[in-house]
Write a structure and sequence with these properties.
By secondary structure, this protein is mostly helical. It has 14 helices and 6 strands. The protein has a two-stranded antiparallel ribbon with strand order 1-2. Strand 1 and strand 2 form a beta hairpin.
Length: 386
């Protein structure tokens, strides 16, 4: 319940830090009560108990214990006027010459068993002023002062509650109480903390700027994290001689309290870790870019080679096609002009006449025209038509 209610925690915190001052005030109050108890015994110890609120057993000044209890009661200002009234007793309600002892005998004494009004009024009023109006209210003043200081401290920066909340969250990430957490858990841990120590995600840039030490095993100590978070909340602290001396004393105290932290060796920090990470990513990007450009060049060269091969193959196919066409035309013409066609073009009579005539003179045969001779530019013409 106390952990859940911040107001109650604040009041209890103010009360706890006020305990030393409250003990001193209590000692002063006890001393004043002791003095007034002695004065009450010597001044009103033989007073006649005539009834009222005072009685023979408890409420009187006959013994030190009863006087002290009576002074304690009056210090609360409860019914002090009822106590003052019996102290003002005067004749004929009392004997001004003799006092009555416990055994019933009379003993002569100045004022007898009567009271002294001026002394009773001065006694009672001074005691009320000193105890109730000064010392008792001093208790309240001290508690309120410490409460205001706790509230002002909370507004300025960090309180004990913030440290308690820090270790409550730390317990989730370090259940075995090793005092270390992994570097990978730092961002989540700081984001889970409450204000003012917590830094909401994304908090990578802030944690890198803290330059928190990293020890072997890629681990971080709770004290290092807490100190840098406190510095972040409080801001820059002026480096004075007193501050330097205080920091050295704290380091000695920390070394005694956290021996495992002293035995570890710092291997890196959040700033160095970030620089290494950025450098590694830069090298990876540069290497990937180089590999990509190299592959693109290889692909381009391969594409050019394949294109040249295709062009050469297509040209060879064109040339082969033109030469084949000319060869086919020549063969067809030679076959046409060299074959005999008696039924259609030459009659039988003509064949006889030609046979007779051949004996006398040689008949000149028709020569099959060579396509290549007739059309020397047939290749160029064919290419243009194609």
């Amino acid at each position: 319940m106390i952990k859940g209610a911040k107001g109650i925690r604040k009041l209890i915190f103010a009360l706890v830090i006020s305990l030393p001052a409250l003990v001193n005030i209590g000692a002063l109050l006890a001393l004043i009560m002791f003095i007034y108890s002695i004065i009450g015994m010597s001044s009103f110890g033989n007073l006649k108990i005539a009834g009222g609120i005072m009685d023979e057993d408890v409420i009187n000044f006959k013994t030190f214990s009863s006087s002290f209890v009576l002074m304690l009661r009056i210090s609360t200002s409860a019914g002090w006027n009822d106590i003052l009234e019996p102290l003002l007793i005067q004749p004929p309600d009392c004997n001004p010459d003799y006092i009555t002892r416990p055994d019933g005998t009379l003993y002569k004494q100045d004022i007898g068993d009567c009271g002294q009004p001026w002394l009773a009024i001065l006694f009672m009023c001074s005691y009320i002023l000193i105890t109730y109006l000064v010392i008792i209210n001093t208790y309240i003043a001290v508690i309120l002062e410490n409460f205001n200081q706790a509230h002002a401290q909370e507004e300025i920066g960090i309180t004990e509650d913030d440290f308690d909340a820090f270790y409550i969250v730390w317990e989730k990430y370090d259940p075995l109480a090793t005092q270390f957490i992994k570097f990978d858990q730092l961002s989540l841990f700081v984001a889970e903390l409450d204000e003012p120590l917590g830094i909401p995600a994304p908090n990578e840039i802030a944690l890198v700027a803290f330059d928190i030490p990293i020890v072997q095993g890629d681990k971080m100590h709770c004290l290092d994290i807490l100190m840098h978070l406190v510095i972040h909340v409080l801001g820059n602290v002026e480096e004075t001689e007193e501050f330097t001396q205080l920091r050295e004393e704290l380091q000695i105290k920390f070394a005694e309290t956290f021996p495992t932290r002293v035995k570890t060796t710092k291997t890196s920090s959040t700033m160095t870790k970030k620089k290494e990470d950025v450098a590694a990513k830069t090298l990876q990007r540069a290497w990937k870019s180089f590999k990509t450009q190299k592959n693109l060049r290889n692909i381009t060269q391969l594409a050019k080679m394949m294109k040249n091969q295709d062009d050469a193959q297509s040209n060879s196919q064109k040339n082969t096609g033109v030469l084949g066409l000319g060869r086919r035309l020549t063969n067809s013409l030679r076959h046409f002009f060299g074959a005999s066609r008696p039924t259609s073009a030459i009659s039988r009579t003509s064949i006889k006449n030609m046979s007779l005539f051949t004996d006398k003179t040689k008949v000149k045969t028709l020569q099959v025209p060579n396509v290549r001779v007739l059309y020397p530019n047939v290749r160029a013409v064919s290419q243009s038509h194609l």
